[in-house]
């Protein structure tokens, strides 16, 4: 039985079979479906909200554990000058280097590291986060974090900026999410979006092993054209649009493909900092001309879009 496209409602067809979570090793095997009418792609079967919440709290970035040396090293690195250098060289997929002012809402703020960086850049930052463990840690950092869905969120004042850093692809209904993002923004406010590009060279190279299918957490999968169309349909005007290929994503997809078939090894090696760092250096060093070519031709692995909300 075919499923309706989450973007346009047209029938979908099978695009990829046997896609698994090669980041965190959560259980299950999934398909990716494609819509020929609008170019959208989506994960099947699609978990419901309560199931997703349980999966996030059990498997995602923050499950209430410190993760030992890996977590400590990551925290130290993110607040170091080396991270600023990496953003300048590798690309800023989380908008951590953008200075500004006004009220900012980080949707899917996890344990609040991004909130701290936005605050240092001049913003008054709040967060939304469904993972209760992560939200608790973010609040302990001194931030206001609302443990609710965007559709249920009623802020006391509208925001100047809403950040969807690798979040929109997680939405069970991305169109509805954008409508509610627009609702909480001031007229003329901006949404900053980053997400994986299904038309990327890495997606074509690695197929089911591409790390950014990230099932079942990624519900919908965007091309640049599909994202632009959706934003225009929901009353946003594109102010900036580009594609970049983070060295980390190259490293993660390479690991997932190299050890595919051994999920325990993939998940373990994704968190081996020396291996990941070495693969990143190769990607950013030796492969720099190729990555730059992909980015210029729209085949970068991450789409970066800044869009202004209409009245």
Topology:
Blueprint (H helix, E strand, L loop, with lengths): L12 E7 L10 E5 L6 E4 L4 H11 L8 H11 L2 H10 L12 E5 L5 H8 L3 E5 L3 H9 L4 E2 L12 E7 L8 H11 E12 L4 H6 L13 E2 L2 H10 L2 E9 L2 H12 L4 H8 L2 H13 L2 H9 L5 E8 L2
Parallel strand pairs: 4-5, 4-7, 5-6, 7-8
Antiparallel strand pairs: 1-2, 2-3, 3-9, 8-11, 10-11
Helix pairs in contact: 9-10, 9-11
Description:
There is one protein chain. Helix 9 (247-258) packs across helix 11 (273-285). This protein is an alpha/beta fold. It is globular and about 50 Å long. The protein is 38% helix and 21% strand. The strands form 2 sheets. Strands 6-5-4-7-8-11-10 form a 7-stranded mixed sheet, sandwiched between helices. The longest helix has 13 residues, at 273-285. Strand 5 (124-128), helix 5 (132-140) and strand 6 (145-146) form a beta-alpha-beta unit.
- Strand neighbour order, sheet with most strands: 6-5-4-7-8-11-10
Rg over CA atoms, rounded to whole Å, is 18 Å
Our count of helices gives: 12
C-alpha end-to-end distance: 41 Å
How would a crystallographer describe the biggest sheet?
7 strands, mixed
Please give the share of residues in helix: 25-40%
- In one word, what is the shape? globular
Proportion of strand residues: 15-25%
Structural class label? alpha/beta
Low-confidence runs (pLDDT<50, min 5 residues)?
A: 62-66
Find the count of extended strands (DSSP E, 2+ residues): 11
